[in-house]
Design goal:
The chain is α+β, with helices and mostly antiparallel strands and 598 residues long. The chain is 18% helix and 36% strand. Helix 1 crosses helix 2. This is prolyl oligopeptidase.
Length: 598
């Protein structure tokens, strides 16, 4: 191992010692403890219930807290089975014939049995924990069934194609309404809080009826009367999480490129604040939840390891500077795009340095997903070794509401790549980095954006990295979930849309390059246990760039997938990316600096 790689390896190992706790659920936490490589179930006092081999996706404690239903997978491929943990004995009993993939468990009030949708086999399963008896009912062929808490026996959300999702009380049979895209339902007093793609609705849960009768779209009755208790919607905010706390609904949202907490009382906004702040880091609140009457926030930043904070009063939670690793600072930069729109990028850099610095610029920009500054061990490791790390917010993502998302979607997807070009140029013009010091990086859809930018603008960067990226936009259906991505890239099957995709597709661009073309160095990463994106596109990208005379290498992250991964599996992946970036920028930093002191 070279001295450079060894230094990065040590720095990365130090950063990986920090754990990643989850929110308490029924007195238990699913998370990775400090110094551990995999997730386990822990009590609030820090003691461990169980830390099994494999991967724990979700937990559902029984009402009496004696058992914990878990979604457990043997590998990182996201395909799981039901397991039951004895909370006192710390043992795990698997039910391999109940096959799950991010499914919800509903316990009976007496904790003797549970219901779960085994979505991999399209069955609704009832498991009696006393007798071990199982009862299974087949689901409708084209319908999706989800279960949520609420009422006496829970709520049933049945989605069927263009009809949207109908929400029904399982105990009374009362229909609560139908929504085009329902995300979650939860109890709200005697009613139900519905989180859907357009906002929040509070609907009553009284009376009885039959499935699909009584209520129509979004809580309206058959006559069209609006029976909702209240509705809330903000087109400029993306809801990330929702919790009911005392007399109010607390909304965690992303607005103006940062996370905010919004307090609602009877559907009226009474407060909106930045959830957490730090004098030297950009903090992001990733989750909120109420357990045993206490509202907690999950907070982290590029240099701030994930932690749980209790919201004791309604205000911004300030994380003291001493809690932040003294490795550097994170600064928000606003850069004007070529069409005048302001773009945001957060740059984390070593203390007491000035540019130009070696810079890893990451991106996403799709599916309405916000790309926020978070703690990822490669960030402090890279900064500790003198580099800078940046998080770009691009149109198509979820940082600034619905209009921002639509501006980088479908036939406007080229705008996402153009935004990355503008941010890269803005950082170069500001003296933060130089083209020979800049490496673009993106995972999944972000890899498409990074590759599209680097191939179309080879003078902009020294190299680019893609991880698990569907780089061939002309054949998205070849991927297991690819049919769901076509609308994001504007593929409606017409000749015009295919021409648009050909111009946008990084692989099509790469295969059209002439021999001797200027090409930034490329690292293509594929995940060994990926069930969403096939490796073929990355293999073809490497081959195409090599044919044109470029430097391109392929690397497989064994044991890693699109789902929950052990930190040990991610260590080599992170180290490979950092070493690639350092290799490209080492000669240039010899001339300038790997972080020149002010």
């Amino acid at each position: 191992m070279s001295a450079r790689r060894s230094a990065l390896d040590d720095a990365l190992a130090r950063a990986e010692r920090h754990g990643r706790p989850g929110l308490p659920v029924g007195g238990f936490i699913l998370g990775r403890a400090d110094g551990r490589s995999r997730r386990g179930i822990h009590r609030l006092d820090g003691t461990t219930v169980i830390e099994p081999d494999g991967h724990l996706h979700r937990i559902f404690p029984s009402p009496d807290r004696r058992r914990i239903a878990v979604e457990w997978a043997p590998t990182a491929d996201e395909n799981a089975v039901l397991g039951i943990v004895d909370a006192h004995g710390g043992t795990l009993q698997l039910h391999p014939d109940i096959r799950l993939r991010y499914d919800t468990v509903l316990w009976a009030p007496d904790s003797r049995s549970l219901d779960v949708v085994a979505s991999r086999d399209r069955m609704l399963v009832t498991l009696d924990l006393q007798t071990g008896e199982q009862r299974a009912a087949a689901l409708e062929a084209d319908a999706r069934l989800r279960l949520f808490p609420g009422g006496e026996r829970g709520l049933r959300a049945l989605s069927s194609g263009s009809r949207g999702t109908t929400l029904t009380d399982r105990g009374t049979g009362a229909s609560l309404g139908r929504w085009p895209a329902l995300l979650r339902a939860s109890p709200l007093g005697t009613g139900v809080l519905v989180w859907h793609d357009r906002g929040l609705d509070a609907v009553p849960n009284v009376g009885a009826g039959t499935d699909g009768a009584g209520k129509d779209d979004a809580g309206k009755d058959a006559a069209g009367k609006d029976d909702a208790l209240w509705r809330w919607h903000d087109p400029d905010a993306l809801i990330v999480d929702v919790a009911v706390h005392d007399d109010r609904v607390v909304v965690l949202a992303v607005a103006d490129g940062r996370s905010v907490l919004i307090d609602l009382v009877d559907g009226v906004e009474v407060a909106r604040i930045e959830a957490a702040s730090s004098p030297s880091d950009a903090l992001t609140t990733t989750m909120i939840g109420v357990d045993d009457g206490v509202l907690r926030l999950g907070v982290e930043g590029p240099l701030t390891p994930p932690r749980l904070l209790q919201r004791e009063r309604r205000g911004t939670v300030v994380v003291p500077a001493a809690a932040v690793r003294p490795l550097g600072t994170t600064v928000r930069h606003d850069i004007r795009a070529d069409d005048g729109v302001i773009l945001t990028v957060h740059v984390t850099s070593p203390p007491g340095t000035e540019g130009p610095l070696p810079l890893i610029l990451t991106c996403y920009g799709g599916f309405g997903v916000p790309h926020l500054p978070l703690f990822e061990p490669t960030v402090p490791a890279w900064v500790e070794c003198g580099g800078a790390y940046a998080v770009a917010q691009l149109r198509g993502g979820g940082e600034r509401g619905a209009a921002w998302r639509e501006a980088g979607r479908g036939r406007s997807k080229h705008r996402t790549i153009a935004d990355l070009v503008d941010i890269a140029r803005g950082l170069i013009e500001a003296g933060i980095t130089r083209p020979d010091l800049l490496v673009l990086a993106g995972a999944s859809l972000g890899g498409v954006v990074a590759a599209g930018c680097a191939i179309a603008h080879p003078d902009l960067c020294a190299g680019f990295v893609t991880t698990a990226a569907p780089l061939d936009l002309l054949h998205l259906d070849d991927h297991p979930l690819g049919a769901r991505w076509r609308a994001e890239f504007g593929d409606d099957g017409t000749r015009e849309s295919r021409a648009h995709l050909r111009a946008l597709s990084p692989l099509a661009q790469a295969e059209a390059l002439p021999a001797g073309a200027r090409i930034p160095s490329y690292l293509g990463v594929v995940l060994g246990e990926d069930t969403r994106v096939r490796a073929r596109d990355t293999h073809r990208m490497v081959e195409a760039l090599r044919r044109a005379g470029g430097s391109a290498r392929l690397w497989t992250a064994s044991g890693a997938g699109h789902g929950a991964n052990e930190s040990a599996a991610l260590h080599e992946l992170g180290l490979t990316v950092l070493d690639f970036a350092a290799e490209l920028t080492t000669e240039s930093t010899t001339e300038s600096t790997m972080g020149r002191a002010r």
